């Protein structure tokens, strides 16, 4: 019998098929993610440009059309061709390991993000715990980069950046505990399912302080304005990645933007109802546009895009906080507020306050 | 139960491999022309004054220790939050006592100034 | 038992017998950093060598000289009219004051009086230059704290004003318009109408800048209470201009020793109280609005007819009798002056430019920078509004 692709496929051993299917799904997640990261850089330059009474990149195009839209590709090719400078006396292995750790930490969390009911790579029951753990590993990338660069500025910048990140991670952790109290499960899909319904049913309302603090801590975690003291050019110039060039710098850049998209997606999932639509369920009955009005992955994309726009808007509008002001905010303002609100939510959950907490487990 | 983590492991490996591939392509495609000035550490155009392996402030160490304590607290809060409804009032008050002890510690370190200047 | 936290003063360096600080670089407690000439947070080319303990600056030493072009020596070798294209290049962002002070000094020593209409046009140009300089300052001040938006908006507004300069004088930056004896030309047709449009646009931009920058919570946290200039330092250090006015001292050469047509214009010097970075920025913003009002007054009151140049002798063989004079004016940064000495030959014997930036950027900065957080150094430098080109000519 001639070998058709189908029989070839059926004759492969079972574990290999599993791995190949997983790899295919990973490609389905990674390729849009990397494209999003690349075009987020373009969106940032364009949007901030328009806020600043100028246009962003509008020259590099595809064969003369879509001017400006090939800018990220041009930047990627340029970064690939730039010399990767190994500083004298830098610890070579650690020097190249640092950006890879940062990228792995930012990208690895996407394995458990549900894009729609059932559309998730790995539906693990401890999804939120996994995400907290793997985003915490990103700090290693920064510290190792600062140490391995053999430069005073890099080391100072790395330590300040790391101290800032871990301070805000506590506030984020407490906010996540609040979400857990409200949802009753660590599984991200079930957290979204617990927010079934309209806008009032989503968690942003009962957990409002936690929502605000989670997002702002997310901005501080990714070292974005107004908390980007580590990259502040007027102070310690370029911080922990001052000695990196070429792809090393680009990988740090990719990791930062991937983390931004991750935080935006997590905020949308945990506080804004994920793939649920703000229109009531009856909207799905309307002919033709009912599919758009009902729940689906496009709502998750829209909400994530909204938070990314907030990221860019903050960067354009606010000056930089000073370092001690950032630490004061993280330790003395956010942590007390989150602890107090946690107790409030716990009491509300015990008392089964409608309409959010009176659903059966 | 562990089999549901296989995609996660492969994803992490793919992410790691992505970083390795990108940097390897860069090192293959890009020119290598090291010279003395390029390899020296950056200092706004001047000679670096000292070797960069300098002593750093003890405040960073303090922040790291405090972070570990609070992170462990969060780790204990996670399972409690998930099963709060099943453990009822007793579980709630047990965690309030735990949080209370930690809040007393937080107030102590606030007043002692461990959170100052940073 | 007191819970109030006291900072550990044992960390700060002690003073040695001769008054300098006892800093032991080898102890690892202090770090020497250069906020050098290649640094995005400085208003020009000068560098500050900082000694830092943790996050706080313990001592700062300014190094200037990167922009020394030898102007004053150049002018000694050129005739009076050949100096005229050089003077405007001394201070790059606000060149008109150089032209005016030099022209007025030459006129005073040569005994020439510039006509009425020329004086009005001179004042108009000086005020337009002042508006431009303040707009650039606002952008730089916000940029030193990390807010790039303001710089883009004010550059746009400044560009409109540069268009007005171009149609009036023929050039955008280096006008070479104010000659000894008068000005080169009058106002073109329709200038008032276009100027009014430009002024409206600038006012609208300033309104946006106020909303986004001065009402911004983060900017206030960075700027209020930082960089305090003690009013007692004003006289010993020779602080003039908005730096002094924000400390409550009403020092404005336009009012104290009026020149040109300022006696006929109606304005009050803008005073602030707090003397921190925020107050200085606010004083300069309000001063810009006063300048806009002055421009409007001038366009309304200016004579439209009359001579533009007084009669001056043949400039190729112009010999000015012996004498010396000092002409001062109020530029956007403070008191600006030209000290001119002539000896009867066709060349100036000595020209000395007194720019306000030397005392502000070198002496005052070294005084103010002590115990400042390193992140605020750039903000402080910009808030003193110094232009390094005029520090070392």
Model description:
The complex is a heterotrimer of chains A (361), B (118) and C (393). Chain A is mainly alpha-helical and 361 residues long. Chain A has helices spanning 5-10, 14-51, 71-81, 92-108, 127-136, 138-148, 152-183, 188-193, 208-221, 247-271, 290-293, 297-317, 323-351. Chain A is globular, with a radius of gyration of 22 Å. Chain B is mainly alpha-helical. Helices cover 69% and strands 0% of the residues of chain B. Chain B has four helices and no strands. The longest helix of chain B is centred in the C-terminal third of the chain and has 29 residues, at 84-112. Chain B is flat, with a radius of gyration of 25 Å. The longest helix of chain C is centred in the N-terminal third of the chain and has 29 residues, at 116-144. Chains in contact: A-B, A-C, B-C. Chains A and B meet through α2, α3, α4, α5 and α7 of A and α1, α3 and α4 of B.
The biggest sheet of chain B amounts to: none
Number of separate helices of chain C: 14
Report the CATH architecture of chain C.
Orthogonal Bundle
Low-confidence blocks of residues of chain C = 1-8
Examine the coordinates and then state which fold CATH places here, giving the name of the CATH topology of chain C: Cytochrome-c3 Hydrogenase, chain B
Which of globular, elongated, flat, extended, rod-shaped describes the shape of chain C? globular
Q: Quick one: which chains have the greatest interface?
A: A-B, 85 and 66 residues
Structural class of chain B: mainly alpha
Query: Major beta sheet of chain C, specifics?
Result: 3 strands, antiparallel
Rg of chain B, Å, rounded: 25 Å
Oligomer: heterotrimer
Please give the alpha-carbon distance between the first and last residues of chain C.
Answer: 59 Å
Short description:
Chain B is mainly alpha-helical and 118 residues long.
How are the SSEs placed, and which strands pair?
The complex is a heterotrimer of chains A (361), B (118) and C (393).
Chain A: H1 5-10, H2 14-51, H3 71-81, H4 92-108, H5 127-136, H6 138-148, H7 152-183, H8 188-193, H9 208-221, H10 247-271, H11 290-293, H12 297-317, H13 323-351
Helix pairs in contact in A: 2-3, 2-10, 2-12, 4-6, 4-10, 6-7, 7-9, 7-13, 9-10, 9-13, 10-12
Chain B: H1 6-29, H2 36-39, H3 58-82, H4 84-112
Helix pairs in contact in B: 3-4
Chain C: E1 30-35, E2 47-53, E3 56-63, H1 71-76, H2 80-87, H3 96-110, H4 116-144, H5 149-169, E4 178-179, E5 182-183, H6 191-214, H7 217-223, H8 234-237, H9 242-245, H10 253-256, H11 277-301, E6 323-331, E7 334-342, E8 348-354, H12 357-368, H13 377-383, H14 389-392
Antiparallel strand pairs in C: 1-2, 2-3, 4-5, 6-7, 7-8
Helix pairs in contact in C: 4-5, 4-11, 4-13, 5-6, 6-11
